[in-house]
Design goal:
- The protein is an all-alpha fold.
- The chain starts with 19 loop residues before the first helix and ends in a 6-residue tail after the last helix.
- The longest helix is centred in the C-terminal third of the chain and has 34 residues.
- It has 3 helices and no strands.
Length: 133
C-alpha cells in the first residue's frame, strides 16, 4: 500500500464516546483512545499519526510538555519519600546516596514517560483538546 494513502478503518470497529476514565485507561495502556484496539505509539514516544484499527487521527492531540511534567511529579512523589527513609535509616555519605539515587530516578523517569504521554493523549481525547492546524 502506498504511504500517501490514508488507512481505512476496519468495518465494525466501535469508537467510544469521549470519557475521561476511558481515555485515561486506554492512554495508560498505550492504545488508541477512540477504539482501544490500535497501538498509540510506533516507537518509544512517537505517536502513530493514524490509528491502524479505526483511522482516528491521534497526532492531533497535544502532549508536548505536560507528559514530562506529569512524569516528574510522579517520580518525585514516589522516590523522595524513599530517599528520606534511606537517609534516616542508614548512615550513608551524600556521594553514595547520589550515586545510588540518580540512576534510579533516571530509570523511573524513562520507564514512566511513555505511560504518562499516553495518559495525557487520552485525557486530551476525552476533553476534545486538539492542535490548531
Amino acid at each position: 500500500m502506498p504511504l500517501d494513502q490514508p488507512l481505512q478503518p476496519a468495518i465494525g470497529v466501535h469508537r467510544s464516546p469521549p470519557n475521561i476514565l476511558t481515555g485515561l485507561r486506554r492512554g495508560i495502556v498505550r492504545t488508541c483512545p477512540a477504539c482501544g484496539q490500535g497501538e498509540l505509539f510506533s516507537g518509544y514516544l512517537t505517536v502513530r499519526p493514524v490509528c491502524p484499527t479505526c483511522g482516528n487521527d491521534n497526532e492531533q492531540y497535544p502532549s508536548d510538555d505536560f507528559a514530562p511534567y506529569v512524569t516528574i511529579f510522579l517520580v518525585l512523589h514516589l522516590m523522595v519519600p524513599l530517599l528520606f527513609f534511606a537517609d534516616r535509616t542508614w548512615d550513608m555519605s551524600v556521594w553514595f546516596e547520589a550515586a545510588f539515587a540518580i540512576p534510579i530516578f533516571l530509570a523511573a523517569t524513562l520507564a514512566l514517560l511513555p505511560f504518562a504521554k499516553g495518559a495525557v493523549i487520552g485525557v486530551a481525547w476525552a476533553f476534545g483538546v486538539t492542535r490548531n492546524r
